[in-house]
Model the fold of this input.
Amino acid sequence: MHRIRGALLAVAVLAATALAVKGAGAEPLKVRVGWVIAPSNTAPLLAAKQDIARHAGTSYVLEPVHFNGTSPMVTAVASGELEIAPLAYSTFALAVQNAGLGDLRVIADDFQDGVAGYYTDEYLVLKDSPIRKLADLKGKVLASNATGSAIDMGLRAMLRKQGFEDKRDYTIIEVGFPNMKAVLKDRKVDLISAVPVITQDPEVKAIARTLFTQRDAVGTTQMIMWTARAGFLAKNRAAMVDLMEDVLRARRFFEDPKNHKEVVEIVAKITKQPAENLEPWVFVKGADYYRDPDGLPNLDALQANVNLQRELGFLKADIAVKNYVDLGIVQEAARRLK
Done:
């Protein structure tokens, strides 16, 4: 499994808290949190401001771990190499049903796609491409970040509406998000699946146009939610409430328009993107995803998303989402901030 440690943030947290840990009686809980792309995933941002992560180094130490998509996180959480896996709705269902992780629990919202007034993922083609409608995708090569990911599911769902079937009518190849622009620009694929850091790139805007969106394909989605195994949560509940308190405090800081300039500088440093490219959309309503201020996932949307996954043939049986939810931790954390 290809993984890149979130070295910048992990080292910063460990260095800043080394003395506190040494002086404290018990070791703080090590919490490895997966992420795919910043700033959409919040894990890489949490330790960026020490005055926000007030419990870091005392009750927990955060270690962000990078993955190319949410699907590889399932193996990591199953093997004990990851404590918190921010999973797409599609990956979550497959983890429960196919990977046998019946003890996996949804504990918080990361972000939602397709909420009215907020961003939805886009599927892009070149501006000079002859592809003008769904039917024109027949026989084409399409790029998805990972098979079974939420954005992959949106692509397949939209093509199913056209009556197309994978391999018979089109070909999907896996391409990491950082390489999407290149494969489209070089005409190695006919369509890419794009998230804000791609769609808001000035060079991409100059060469590409939107064919359809994820909202068009599947409506509102509980795109990514934080998940963890029940045994871990039961054993470490107090530390997890502290972590979620810091998560919500950070979320509110990043979402507050009066902090926008500082937020853009933080995100630019972490992502190594030019600040001018980030300023128009990062944590800007209408240009970025919806994130619930209290960290509560949209369970109705999640159930509808999983039902669609079953209809598309990716699940062998129905899944009742309510049986795999534990929101007590994030709810307690939110009460602390009232």
Summary: The first strand starts at residue 4 and ends at 5. Residues 122-218 form a domain with the D-Maltodextrin-Binding Protein; domain 2 fold (CATH 3.40.190.10).
